[in-house]
Fold this sequence. Notes:
Layout (H helix, E strand, L loop, with lengths): L1 H8 L8 H20 L1 H9 L1 H5 L11 H19 L1 H51 L2 H6 L2 H43 L1 H8 L1 H14 L1 H24 L1 H6 L3 H53 L7 H42 L18 E10 L4 E11 L3 E5 L6 H7 L8 E6 L2 E2 L5 H6 L1 E5 L9 H5 L8 H10 L3 H6 L17 H15 L3 E5 L7 H15 L3 E5 L11 E6 L2 E6 L1 H7 L2 H8 L4
Parallel strand pairs: 3-8, 3-9, 6-7, 7-8
Antiparallel strand pairs: 1-2, 1-4, 4-5, 9-10
The structure holds adenosine-5'-diphosphate (ADP).
The site of adenosine-5'-diphosphate (ADP) has 11 residues, from helix 15.
Amino acid sequence: METFKRVLSFARPLGRYWPGYLLLSVLSVIFGVINYGLLGPLLTVLFDDSAAAAPLARPGFAFSVDWVTSWFSWFLSSIIRSDGLIRGLLFVCGAIVAASLVSNVCRYLSQRIIVSLETRLMKNIRKALFSKIASLPVGWFNQKRKGDVLSSISNDVAEVQNTIAGSFHVFLREPLLVAGFLAMLIYMSPKLTIVSLVALPVSAFFVTRITRRLRAGSVETQRLMGRILSHFEEAISGSRIIKAFRARRYVEDRFENDNEKHRRIMRQVRNRQELASPLSEFLGIGIASCVLFYGGWLNYHGDLGMSWPQFIVYIMFYWKVLEPAKTMAKSYAGVQKGLVSADRIFAILDAPAGIPDGELPITGFSDALTFDHVTFSYGDAPVLTDICMTIPKGKTVAVVGPSGAGKSTMADLIPRFYDVAGGAIRIDGRDIRTLRMEELVSLMGIVTQESILFNDTVFNNIAFGQTGVTREAVVAAARVANADEFISALPEGYDTNIGDRGTRLSGGQRQRIAIARAVLKNPPLLILDEATSALDTESERLVQEALTRLMAGRTSLVIAHRLSTVRHADEIYVIKDGSIVEHGRHEDLVANDGLYSHLCSLQAFS
Ligand code: ADP
């Protein structure tokens, strides 16, 4: 129930929907009841001459169903007496059509209100998910399977829409219908109705029994759907590797395994869900037959208390009570599945915000960025131990070491993608955890090995996240980044869309756009994490030129695999297994004959 309420809360403010919806629904139910109520006089007219012939006095007004029916009978019989039976028949049929028209128009209008509530609700859920995902800490996505999140966004949102949001009218309007028809039943024959109502809890018991187990099955199918989507994701983004390693069989088998499991559990869940409707239909007919029998029995003993056309109308009303009851049973089964999806969506929305923001302002720095006895681990095994490093303002500091040593991790700690486990990182002596995160990050320009571009124009990719950027500024930044030339050669220049993740560009071109982005941002501190590692020599030269220009006059932390790119750094830190093993200038380190000079000799460079 909590989850259901929370789903509903996404359509806030609900106040604007209820009054109109309630009014229209009540009208639709009233006219629906009238519609069936008119069948009584119709049958009387058709088959019971004596009733039509009997002269009737106009009934005095009273606020009751009795008055309505007797007024209608009087009106009808006066038409029959003055204009004949056929006219009377025409009148009843016309009245039925009119009542049905009003009832269905009201129903359609009330449905429109529900549709507007539904679409608004789904939009708000997606909006909340997107802004949550955009705000979650970097580390969260490593623990969570991407497929799970994608599955939530596509499947779970759709499931909530189809089941929960789609069931609102069922749970709002159908009870009204049940109440309306039930009131008529009790009015017509309290005795018969009370006896027949005893049967309803029996059918409710069976239906809830089937649906109870639906929830558990749904949790499992949705978990498996997450895995299936992650297989798809891997197959799409890793398509080259799969082909290069002829791993098709392997990935297909892995996929098939989960796919088959999903099929099996899904079959169980769906079978159960499908059982709800036929079962309640069967139980409904069973109950209606009992009523029919009991009514007939009462009639036989002269105890029914109504005419036989009324009894037929009574049975019809009874049938109309069962119909919404069946719809509710079916929707209830669906909602159980939807609630599982809603829970998964809320698990994402409720994920802890992770890294707490600091409070102190920071607009620049004047002295140095320091790692002060920093330790860090992703899980149990320590990744960084007791790192002490100083990056003085205006200097270039390099971090080198074998792969897996922890270099990228060090870079990730500075913009607080992760927080240190021990020690502190300080800017001008202030712990970065005390500073406002947004202002902290705005001091930095980050260029990584895999530059992240978005499916947008070159211009927007360079101006990324900044507002009011002029074309001149973007072009100037692209020039510094050695990118202007190739951008101008693109079919639509700066307005060319670069495709998903910039796939229409070469690695070096993507990197230069990322550098132009950093140039435009003009940050005092630069973090270059293997910015040239993935490039061929020619691209590397162009990118390196761009980087040298970008670094001029700034403070930089350069992480590099190729030592040739860092030999001019003011200070080089060599790390191994998460610890600093030596540091100094290139010449000193070579002279030291330690790990650095060993790495240099491996790369045939000194
Ligand atoms: P380098 O950049 O020097 O190659 P990294 O900083 O990327 O090294 O990784 C250091 C260690 O931390 C490696 O052992 C790596 O397996 C581990 N590691 C890196 N990223 C994660 C992560 N997101 N979750 C868990 N372990 C990680």
